[in-house]
Amino acid sequence: MEVRKVFLTEDEMPRQWYNILADIKMNPPLGPDGKPINPEDLAPVFPMNLIEQEMSTERWTDIPEDVLNVLSIWRPSPLVRAISFEKALDTPAKIYFKNESVSPPGSHKANTAVPQAYYNKVFGIKRLTTETGAGQWGSALSFACGQFGIECKVFMVRVSFDQKPYRKSMMEAWGGNCVASPSTETQTGRDVLKESPDTPGSLGIAISEAIEQAVGDESGQTRYALGSVLNHVMLHQTIIGLEAKKQMDKIGEYPDIIIGCAGGGSNFAGLAYPYVYDKINGKDIAIYPVEPTACPTLTRAPFAYDHGDSAKYTPLLPMHSLGHTFVPAPIHAGGLRYHGMAPTVSQLAAEGIIEPKSVNQLAAYEAGVLLARTEGIIPAPETNHALAYVVEEARKAKEEGKEKVILFTFSGHGLIDLAAYDKYFAGKLNDYVLSEEEEHKFETCFENNPKPELLKSC
Amino acid sequence: MEVRKVFLTEDEMPRQWYNILADIKMNPPLGPDGKPINPEDLAPVFPMNLIEQEMSTERWTDIPEDVLNVLSIWRPSPLVRAISFEKALDTPAKIYFKNESVSPPGSHKANTAVPQAYYNKVFGIKRLTTETGAGQWGSALSFACGQFGIECKVFMVRVSFDQKPYRKSMMEAWGGNCVASPSTETQTGRDVLKESPDTPGSLGIAISEAIEQAVGDESGQTRYALGSVLNHVMLHQTIIGLEAKKQMDKIGEYPDIIIGCAGGGSNFAGLAYPYVYDKINGKDIAIYPVEPTACPTLTRAPFAYDHGDSAKYTPLLPMHSLGHTFVPAPIHAGGLRYHGMAPTVSQLAAEGIIEPKSVNQLAAYEAGVLLARTEGIIPAPETNHALAYVVEEARKAKEEGKEKVILFTFSGHGLIDLAAYDKYFAGKLNDYVLSEEEEHKFETCFENNPKPELLKSC
């Protein structure tokens, strides 16, 4: 019997997060006046302790004991060797994954939800607001807020709210409150509903509602939480890669290839950044973020200053972006349908330290089904995108006859997304590739930016 | 930080199952003629290697290497100390659970699905049929058949099929085929549909369809599989308790109290039987199977000879039974809505070695929500019943001021059952208690039995 799983004890959990900002030079986020923003500018939206973390360039940050205690409900997560998947692919490659689907909400999102709830709690915040698309982030934040006894309000994009009723149920099981967005609870929501009562909603609208409700609470006890893109989110996720390193050490392995799906970038960054540190320090390792061809932020969009949301509430962030008004094709991988990409991931791509790849929807589901039928776990649609590229690398290893070591992050399970698998089996899913026309639509988004010139053309 | 989880390595997995039949004396199953059945009588339904296991009285059975290899996808399962749940209950009791929700199909059912698929495969069987109510068993068997490359056909009770579409999707993701029962694929199904086209179906009908299709395959390459009740199913599940013992040993603990929910009995037996062995050999330990007040097989029904299915296809089994025509109230815990109870569990209850308890539906969901909000995992409705009794024992420990060690089995997660939680939160779930009238209905079931006298009145 070959060993499949490598565990760490709770005592072996990393005690610090790794901050990539210590090792790369970034362009600063800009305010509406085109000047770098100050911590105070963000104070109505986030608590100051998280803003400090967002701007810190210290390489290591201690993980608070209370955060470790909650993370230990499911962490350290298992490192799994996908033996049966390897056999089905008939590859000499060794394929390992960090199984982030074991968290209560079912994905890596809990890794940052827990510290975000904790820091807000410590800062005296009584209530968090957020938006959610596919529902993974809203679930994770509801779970985390429940652990620290603070309220959680989730604005869930109407179309997902209707398609995935179980996500709302999960949030409520943990004590969260979830409403369809646009809602009648905010001015933004009421305005949209007046204009188009039957709108399916969008992430842009939901973000605007969540921020409006957070900054509008006159008691000052409400803040907003974001599940990806920002530096502090990437920081919290590095526990994935830090654990993976310890686990690989235990079995005397080191990866040749790192793979993770990337929507806003946090799942990818979580596994990759500790290895990016190694690469910057001379290690020979290939690192691939994988995105859908329908929303090819890193592979086809320019590196520019753009807003994180369609309503332009956020500062201008230096990132690969398809434009803040971009509406991606309706692929069934909600977590990857985002117009931008975390600034740090964008910067690493621009510098050639990581090498972005894109895969199509049908290849993603095909790989996901193969994984389910071999390793048992049914992957989230987002994870399927990583898997499709794992399959490509495994085939390449076979052609080259090389025993490469591939490590990827299994971002979440697909148990609440089974309707998408039904569509796949029924032949109702399509491939989508961004058209050239769409590719150039973004340019109008950048026209009025205070610093419109592209940082680097894609 | 207190340690929450105790893991075993794959090398530490038990290599043998424990057979309770070595340590208790049982009444034999009877055929239609009132005489004990022979192995050959079961040969059209099950493969001979499993029939031998069903009738074996050897204390230990080796677990085949190929079975261990598949079990190692998720086993050994974690032993978890429910620290946050304890704190919420303010109890001096230490509460541990075996987390069986970590299997790919999400419950303990996979522990027997895998060996059943394996033994059928070894015997040359190409296709398995089965029924499923809530869907846990059908999912588990689909997963297991996929691992050994045999076909799986699941007849799912129509009402559950319509209420829980994700269960069908799961089965299909693993390559299984699931149809609503009654179906047009069997004579039984066609007859029922002719009579009542709008029937919601029943487990009785679904079993009949599955057996009909298995024995009706003239190639002899199809057999039927059952997910509970039978001796070989209990045998396979003992891996739960055998692992738990090793894990408790590692932290120097031994339980005072064992708790498991019991529908057909396999989840309970899996944890309990290795401890029953200790109890028979002098250990002071309390062992409680927990059932719903709506279907109180062990706590209110007689111990008698009865059929396992409503169509009387099965032999007469010596068991606690509400009568094979009993239709339990529509509680949201499908896995506990069974008229009978495993003969071995029934025998142990009759001998007073285990002490059955019953709990009501609302107390079960209340306990489940508390567990979800403290420990994170959302439990299956069946697991909630065990939890309700854990809460009772934890309160008792508090009243008595005793640091008791409670160990229960967390049979599965509730991610596919979230609609039931919605009903609970909306105040749409009710308590059900069996009426005295219902309690005596069963007697008519036994009238025409070849050996109708009760083995022991309840």
Fold and architecture overview:
- Two copies of one chain form a homodimer.
- With 458 residues, the first copy, chain A, is an alpha/beta fold.
- Chain A folds into two domains: 5-12 and 62-106 and 232-446, 3-Layer(aba) Sandwich (Rossmann fold); 110-226, Rossmann fold.
- Chain A is built from 20 helices and 15 strands.
- Chain A has helices at 39-42, 48-55, 65-71, 83-89, 110-122, 136-148, 158-163, 165-173, 187-195, 203-215, 231-237, 239-250, 266-280, 297-300, 343-350, 361-375, 381-400, 418-425, 436-441, 443-446, and strands at residues 5-6, 16-18, 60-62, 79-81, 94-99, 127-132, 151-157, 177-181, 222-224, 257-261, 286-292, 303-307, 316-320, 357-359, 405-410.
- In chain A, strands 1-4-5-15-10-11-14 form a seven-stranded mixed sheet, sandwiched between helices. In chain A, strands 8-7-6-9 form a four-stranded parallel sheet, with helices on both faces.
- In chain A, α16 (361-375) crosses α17.
- The longest helix of chain A has 20 residues, at 381-400.
- The model of chain A has no long low-confidence stretch (mean pLDDT 93).
- The A-B interface holds A 1-5, 7, 9-11, 65, 68-69, 72-74, 84, 102-104, 106, 143, 146-147, 165-166, 169-170, 172-175, 369, 372-373, 375-378, 415-416, 418-419, 421-422, 425 and B 1-5, 7, 9-11, 65, 68-69, 72-74, 84, 102-104, 106, 143, 146-147, 165-166, 169-170, 172-175, 369, 372-373, 375-378, 415-416, 418-419, 421-422, 425.
